[in-house]
Queue: 2 jobs
Job 1
Amino acid sequence: MTEIMIIKKIQKEIIELLENAIELNGKDSEYWYLLGTAHFFVIKDYDKAIEFHKKAAEINYTETINNNKEDYYYTLGKINLYLGKSQEAIENFKKAIKDSMDYFNDFYEVSNYWHYLGLSYEKNGQYDEALKSYKRALYINIRSELDDYFYDCLNALKSLYDLYKKLGKNDDAIYTLTNSIEKDISAPFMIIPFCDKDFKGSETYNDIVHAYNDIIDDSWYYYLSNACREELADLYRRYGEYDKAIELYKQISIENYKNIAKTYIEGKNYKKAIDTYKMIIKIHPDNELNCYIDIARTYENAENYNEAIDYYNKAIEIDSENSDYYINIAEIYKKLENYEEAINYYNKAIKILNEPCKYHKKLAECYKRLEKYNNAIEAYKEYFKIADDKIPPYIHTNGSSKLDTLKNIASLYDKLNDIENRNLYYEKAIEKYRELIKKDKRSEKEYLEKIADIYIKIGNKEKAFEIYNDLIKKYNKEISRNKNNCGLFERQADLYLKIDDKESALETYNKSIEVCLKKIKSFENKKISNDDNDDDNKIDSYMEDLSYLAFFYQKVSKPENCINIYEKLIKIYEENIADDEDNIFYLKSIAELYIKLNQKDNALKTYKRVLEIDKYNNDAKEKIKDIESGKEVETACIFGLSYNRYK
C-alpha cells in the first residue's frame, strides 16, 4: 500500500469516527465543527464544510473540555472569504466579534477578527467599512498579523496601507505609516516584502522613508527623532545606501560611531571603519579594549593579518587572561601556515582554560603539520577526554569525534612505527564501532565496513575479508529487492575492489550503468518538474542519476562519456537557480563542472558570482586564487555534487 493510500485510509477513518460520534450525540456542536474542518482541509468538499460549520454555530453548545466554541463564526467567516463569499463572511465575522465579548477571547486575537472583517468588506467593494475595520484591528494590535492556511503572514498595516494606495489616497497611506511608527518604532518594516531585491527605490520604500523623515523633521516628535534616525539608517544599510546611513548615525550621538564603523565594513571600506574605531578610542578611552578587538577583526576582514595580530596583542596587554584573544591569534597563524606560532598561542589559551578543550584538537593538527607526532598524540589524548561531551543531545553525531580521535592517534603511532600502540588504538576504535552498532542498527553495514578497513590497517586481512564478503551478500539481497538503487551498486562494487575482485567490481559498475541509462531515458520521456508530488518524477532525481552515470563511467575508465553529462547538469542548474544565499551550492557545483570540462574562465566567473552573494566564502576565494595562478584545481567526485545537495 502506497503512502498516499495509507493517508487516505486514515482520513476516511477520522471522518467515520466523527460521523459515529454525531450519531451518538448530534447535539454537541464540537463534533459538527470538527467534521466541517475535516471536510474543508482534508476532503476539500467546501459545501459540506460550510453546512457542518453552520450546524456547529447554530447548536453552539459543547461539553468538550478543549473546544473551539468561540471560533465557530470566525472559522465559518474565513471559509466564506476563502471561497469568495464575501457577504456571508462579513455576517459571520460580525457575529464572531460580538461573541468575542461573551467568551473573553485573547484581546490581541480579536484584532484578527477585525482584520478579516476588513478583508471581507474590501472584497465586497465596501471600502469605507474596510478602512474602519483595518484601523480597529491596528488600534487593538499594531502588529496584527494573519498567519494561517488562508493568508501568509498578512499584517493589518499592509492591508490598510495598500487599500489607501489602491484608492489613490497617498497622503493617508503615508500618514498610516507615520501613525504606526508612533505606536511601534519599527512597524513599517512589516510591510517590506521578504527577499525582494527590487524593493529599494519602489513607491513603498520611498513612502517608508517619507514617514520616518516626517517624524525626524517635526519638532513635536523630538522624543522619537533619534530612534527614527536609527531605524531609517538601518533601512538604508539593509539596502546598501551606506552614505545616507552614516549621515543619520552622525546626527544621533557619538555612540553611533560604532554603527558607522559597521556600515563602512559592510561597504568594504575597511580603512574608514578602522579610522572610526580609532576616533571612538580618543573620545571614549574607557572603550579601548572593545575597539582594539573590533579593529583586529576589521583587519582580518581586510586580510591584513599582521595588523590584526598587533591589535589582538594590544587587547592582551589590557586583558591577559582572556583566552579568546590568544585563540584568535592562533587561528590567524594557522591560516598563514605558521604552525610554530599557532602552537605557541594555542598553548597560551589552553593554559588559561586549564582543562581539556576543543583547542587541543587544533593544537594536535598543528603538531601533525610539523611532524611532531608525539606532541600531536598527547594533544589528541587530551581532546579525547571531552570529544562529543559538549555536543547538544539533539545533534546526532554517531560518536564521530571520539572515533576520529582514536583513529588519528593510531595513525600517528603508525608514523612513529609503534605497532603495539597503533594496534591498541585501532582496537579501541573497533570497540567504539561495535558499541555504535548496538545503538544504531540502521548504520550497521557502514560501521562493519569501517571495522573491516581497520582490520586491513592492522594486518588482519582474513577478518577484514570475512566482513567484506558478508556485506557483499547483504547488498545482493538488497539489490534483489531494489534493482534501481544506484547507491547499492556503488557500495557493492567498492567492496569487490576491497577484496581484489576487479572482475566482479567491473560487472557491478556496468550493471549500474544500465540501470542509470534506463532511468534517465524514462525521465527524458516525461515532463519533469520540481513541483511534481511523485519523487520518481523530480528534477533532483534526474540530476542524481546523471551524476551517478558520470561517476560510474569514470569507474570503468570511460571519462569521455562524461562530457555530455556535465553539460546537461550545467544546463539544469542554470535553468533552476537564482543567485541568492540559498543557491550558493548550485553555483559552486556549476563552477566545478566547468573545471571538469576544462572551461576555467567560466569556472572563474561562477566563483565570482558566489563571492558577490557571500563575500566570506573561503572555498570560492581559494578556487579563484588557484585558477588565476594557473594552479591545478581539484574537484569533488561528480556524484558528490548533486548528492550533497539533495541528500
Job 2
Amino acid sequence: MSSRIDSFQGSTVRIDDDAIVIRIGIPDGAKGDRAALLRFAARSDCYQGAVMWHRYAAVYRLYQAKRAELEADSAVDAYSRLYDPQCQTAAAYAVAAGVRPHTAEMFVDRAIACVERIPAVGRLLRDGRITVAWFTRAVEQTALVDDLELLEFIDAEIAHRLSEAGGLSAARVESIVSAVVAEYDPDAVTMTREQIAAGKNVVVSPVSDGMSEMVITGSSEDAMIALGTIDALADGVCPFDPRTKQARRSDAATALLHRAEFTCRCDRDDCASALSPEQVESRRGQIVVHVVVRKDALDGASETPAYEDGVGPISARRARELMARPDAVVRELDIDKVVADCAAHADRYRPSAAVATAVRALFGTCTWPGCDRPAWKSDLDHVVEFDHVDPAAGGPTCLCNLNPKCRFHHGLTTFGSGWVDDQVVDAAGVLWSEVTTPDGVSVRQQALNLWLLPELGRFQCRHGVSIGQSREPPRHAEGEPERARTRTQAKHRYRMQRRAANRRRREAMLVGDGEPPF
C-alpha cells in the first residue's frame, strides 16, 4: 500500500507499507510569502489525522488478534466474559500508553468505529480532511445507529457532504453529521435527546477556594431563554461597570435565583444603568428561539430534520414538540415571496422580513470560516457594498449578495484592511461564501443549511447585477471603533486584578489562622 496526502504547499505525508514519511516544508518568511506562512501556521498539523488513522488501524489489528484467540476457545463465549476481546485489548493499550482503563476503552472503541462502523469518515481523517477531535464527534453522533446497512449509507453520505462542504470547523462538522443522522435515522437523534431530557439535573461542584460551579441541564430552548433572561439583566449596567460579561452574568443569575437586587458597580454619581424592572422586562421580551422546519415535517407528512438557531439540526419530532409549546409562533416562509422581493426590491438597503429570514435560515451561522455565532444573533451584511447614492450601481439587496456575520466579523470586513469577502452560486445551485485574508489565503464554504432549503440555491436572480463580485475596499474606515485600552494594557490590568484577588485571599486565610491556599 502506498498513498500520498498533500497537506499544504511544499509538504506531504507519504504512507508506505512499513513507514509514514512526513515532510513538512517550512516557508521562507524572508521571501515575503505571507500566504505560505499563514497556511503553515494554520494547517501544518493535518498529518496528525493520518498518524491517528494508522494508530487506530494498529490497535484494531490487535483487537482482531485477541478476538480470534478468544473465539478459538469454544468452551466459553468470548463476548460474555468480563474480560472480553475489547477489554483485554484496551487493558494492554492502557499499560503501553500510560492512560486510565476508561481512556483506553474509548480509544479502542473509536478504532473499531474507524474500521468497521464509519470507514468512509475514517478515510477523511486519514487524508487530513478532518481533525481527530472532529472524527471523535462523528463517532459519538453515529453511535446510536444500529442498522448496519443504514449505517453504511449514513457513513457514505456524511463523508460526501463533508468533502463537498468547503471550509470546515468543529461546529460545521458537528452540524453536518447530526443533520445526516437526523434525516436518515431520526430515532438515533431522538434517543440521544431523550437521554439528555431524562438526565435533567442541577450539579454544584467546587472549583477553587470560596468558588463553586453550578451546572443546570435542561432542554436547549429553555437554556437559551434562561440565558437571554440573564443577559437582559446583566446588560443593563452602564459602560463603566468594572466586571467582565461573564462575571455580570454570574451575578445576574445569582440575583435572579435569590430574588435579590442586581446593581451596577461603577460607583459613579452619574451612573446611567437601565435596571428598572420595566426596562429589564422589555429586553427580556425580545428573547426568541428560532427553528427552521419544512411544512411537511411540521404537519407530520415527513421526517425531514429541522434546524434550531444556536443548536443545529434537530429531529422533526422535536421540532413538532417545540411548535406545540403555548408560547410558540409559527410563521410560514413563502419562497415565491422571497424571489419576488429579491427581484423587485434589490435597490433597497434593508431586505424584507422574508428575505432576511431566508438568508439567516440558509446560512445558519456567521459565514466567517470558523465562527459559529448563530445567524439570528448576527448582522445581515451586503457582500458587495450597497451604494446609497446610486443603488443600481452597488451590491443588490438579494439572497445572492447577503449573508449573516457576527458583529466582530462584520466590522472586520468594513474596517479591516485587505480582507476580501465573496459569494457565488454555482451552476448546480450551490451557494458558496468565501473569505480571503490580507495574506492571500482563501477559504470557501457552502451555505450550511442548503440541504434543508435547496430551493434557495436554484432561483435565478433578475436584478441585473452580476453575482459573486468581491467586496470593494472599505469606504468609511474613519468610523472604526477604538479599544478602550490596548491589548497589552488589558492583559496587564487582568494580571493585576488576579494578583490582587490572590493576595486578598491569602491575607484572609492568614488572618483566620489558616494555611494559605498556595
